[in-house]
Amino acid sequence: MSERTLVLIKPDGVRRGLIGDVIGRIERKGLKIVAMDLRTLDAETAKAHYAEHSERPFFGELVEFITGGPLVALVLEGPRAVEAFRALAGLTDPVKSAPGTIRGDHALEIGENVVHGSDSPESAAREIKIFFPDRF
Ligand code: RTP
Ligand code: MG
Questions:
Q1: Which of 12, 76, 90, 97 could form a disulfide with 31 if both were Cys (CB 3.0 to 4.6 A apart)?
Q2: Does the C-beta of 11 come closer than 6 Å to ligand 1?
Q3: Where, in this chain's numbering, is ATP bound (predicted)?
Q4: The CATH fold of domain 2-118
């Protein structure tokens, strides 16, 4: 059974030249890229995407960071795609992420952890609608 997930290469990843690294890992894993776009988010879209964190103390910083430069939005498809990409990404805290994962190899700070991946098929459906409203 195939599933979809929404992935972001966040502005820190784009700024640091990690687009190719992240896409290479996705392709080597065998996940299929079915949509991809480089864009800069407006605050409204960023707040919708991170709505679950709206009451958290870091919400303002999170919105500022994610709107602070171009990012790459992708939709991936494959068996257990949500879980498969989360495994590639590593943990939210890059210091606790194992080397060999995207965050474990490339980041040190929670606030600048290179990628986003949907945390459930339900979140993926919601997020894909925000980023690619007419595509799926
Ligand atoms: P993401 O949504 O970006 O894929 O990351 P995640 O599921 O691993 O983590 P989540 O709990 O959804 O948090 C979203 C993003 O908020 C930032 N964050 N900062 N300062 C903090 O304590 C804190 N906690 C989370 C991170 O950039 C995280 O990716
Ligand atoms: Mg999350």
A1: 76
A2: no
A3: 10, 58, 86, 92, 103, 113
A4: Alpha-Beta Plaits (3.30.70)
